[in-house]
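Example 256.
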Amino acid sequence: MRCEMMILFSLNNHRIILEKQVITITLGYFVDQNELKQAVAQAAVDYVLEKIEPDSILGIGTGSTANCFIDLIASHKHKFLATVASSEGSAERLKGHGITVYELNAVSEVTVYVDGADEANPKLELVKGGGAALTREKIVTAVANEFVCIADESKWVEHLGKFPLPIEVIPMARSYVSRELVKLGGDPVWRENVVTDNGNLIIDVHNFHPIGSACALEEKINQITGVVTNGLFALKPADVMFLATQNGVVKYYPAP
Ligand code: 5RP
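Predicted structure in complex with ribulose-5-phosphate:
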């Protein structure tokens, strides 16, 4: 695994950045989860700024970490053309900053997609969908030239599956899909009162942990009639990951 460490925390308005060094330091104080999200979002902004051109389209994910990224990239909005968003919520937040949001059908290329995750393993296979936006997230990922995942260290796991696996289903297929998921060894729970941006339902599947082959399970679940998307991002994992830890932001590439 290739791993670079970058220290990037805000201390009394002094930003400390030491790039491309493997360093472990104890900061001597506890950085809370929100500060970790801010730090990792800033690392992603710095990374993305090196990739984009004035005509670039940025793909923007969904969730609290993606929201930090949106708020930080806002001051650089003149450096790219527009964005595509993986949820109505993110689109609204982007527009609130005066950032142009295009429909995905209107663009032929997305330079880079930045999004969070609920779990990530060393292969950079992910579980996503905690915010019910998994289908649009997977679609934007498919289009993007590069998928940059950002998360705090609580999301880093050796084996996926402790976080219940979200599945988006067509409403009339909810019970059938649930029965099929039981046959695969899962314990499906309907996320009641949640309707996705696509008008569908979410089933969260418990007890898949530890997921052996995430690619095989992703494919199997995709075969169930009535499933729109499952929250495993293994067939197309992240290309790079920034992980915020108590010791700094670590950049990972997929382990073989
Ligand atoms: C939304 C997602 C999010 O990326 C995931 O839930 C992580 O969210 P957060 O950054 O709030 O922890 O997949 O569907």
